[in-house]
Design brief:
about 350 residues; mainly alpha; 3 strands
Length: about 350
């Protein structure tokens, strides 16, 4: 299934004329879920073994990768192997910490663990290495989900300015500095929008985080922190910037089918992203745990009247840069999955409906 090129704007206009008016998110959800109630109930179920397997893998990957970096730095003489192992260790640490962010995201939707206690406090611990307060980010992230395409959506830059140049500048700043700015702004915004109970949890978590950071600063050598944590976290920040922009950039926030992009990257990339690449599916059914999103995609994709998709995050970024001189925000990667479903997808859909 190919992604459309720079003639997307014309294709958007053609498709819009052929489509009915944009439904609400709940209408879109009901449309693609029709006839699949039993299967969706199965996809909403928790699988503790899968979740613990993910946690074990990525929690182990971080110290192993950091140890590789530090061993190469301290024990090997300068040379190609020395440099290669340091880079490999930093990248491995970044992949692990990026998975922490994605698992924390699961916690925000109450799909990390079934029990609220474990869902919250495991999420708090996952957020600690990436300087994130679980409750602060949950307040704003759930607001983004509740008000997607609405003037109250905190992630839609058109809610802050109507100037095309200013919106494009905000997109560019997001790519360059977004994660760093969010670390400062999200707690302040959570204080503004959070309920009393959410603010209490926020304060509890920051007290825990301050205690953890103080203990680490007093006991861990600076070079260990630099190579094993700081440099990987900076890399995670840029991974988050690109991934987050690809999910909602160059879309149509007012159409629930086009407000979020489904990416289909290499299977290794998809595995490291814990299925977060299926972002349209996630927005339509946020109660489905991430380990079921691939199956959810296969279930509903042939029923979508329209969607935006892509196969490469770096390719998407390159396309954004090519559009910059025109300030063209028309949806990129527009397709009609219901018209392009292959024989296997059609058979799968009929089996599920039966």
């Amino acid at each position: 299934m190919s992604v459309m090129d720079d003639s997307d704007a014309t294709k958007v206009e053609t498709m819009e004329r052929a489509c009915s008016p944009c439904p609400s998110e709940w209408e879109a959800r009901a449309h693609v879920a029709a006839g699949f109630a039993g299967r969706l109930d199965e996809l909403r179920r928790f699988d503790l073994r899968k979740r613990l397997g993910e946690l074990a893998l990525f929690v182990a990957l971080w110290p192993c990768s950091a140890a590789t970096t530090l061993a190469a730095f301290y024990l090997l003489p300068p040379g190609p192997l020395h440099s290669a192992l340091i880079v490999a260790g930093i990248v491995g640490s970044a992949v692990a910490l990026n998975a922490f962010v994605l698992l924390l995201h699961e916690g925000m939707h109450h799909t990390l663990f079934r029990r609220p206690f474990w869902n919250r406090w495991v999420s708090v611990l996952l957020g600690a290495p990436v300087l994130m307060s679980f409750s602060a980010y949950q307040v704003m992230h759930l607001r983004h989900h509740a008000f997607l395409g609405d003037p109250r959506d905190p992630d839609d830059y058109h809610n802050y300015t109507r100037g095309r140049r200013r919106v494009w500048l905000m997109h560019t700043c997001r790519l360059l500095f977004g994660a760093f700015l969010y670390l400062l702004m999200i707690p302040l915004l959570a204080l503004r929008f959070g309920s009393r109970s959410e603010l209490r949890r926020l304060c509890e978590e920051y007290a825990v985080l301050v205690a953890l950071y103080t203990a680490v600063a007093l006991t861990v050598p600076g070079m260990v922190l630099l190579l094993g944590w700081f440099l990987p976290v900076v890399l995670v920040a840029y991974m988050t910037n690109i991934r987050g922009f690809a999910q909602h950039g160059l879309t149509d926030a007012h159409d629930p089918y086009l407000a979020s992009r489904t990416m289909k990257p290499h299977p290794v990339i998809a595995f490291c992203l814990l299925n977060e690449n299926y972002h349209l599916e996630h927005h339509l059914f946020p109660e489905v745990p991430s380990y079921h999103l691939a199956e959810l995609h296969r279930l509903i994709w042939p029923r979508l009247p329209r969607a935006v998709t892509g196969t490469s995050y770096l390719g998407f970024l390159a396309h954004f840069l090519r559009r910059t001189p025109m300030l063209d925000e028309s949806p990129y990667g527009l397709i009609a999955p219901c018209e392009q479903a292959g024989p296997e997808e059609t058979t799968h859909r009929k089996e599920q409906q039966a």
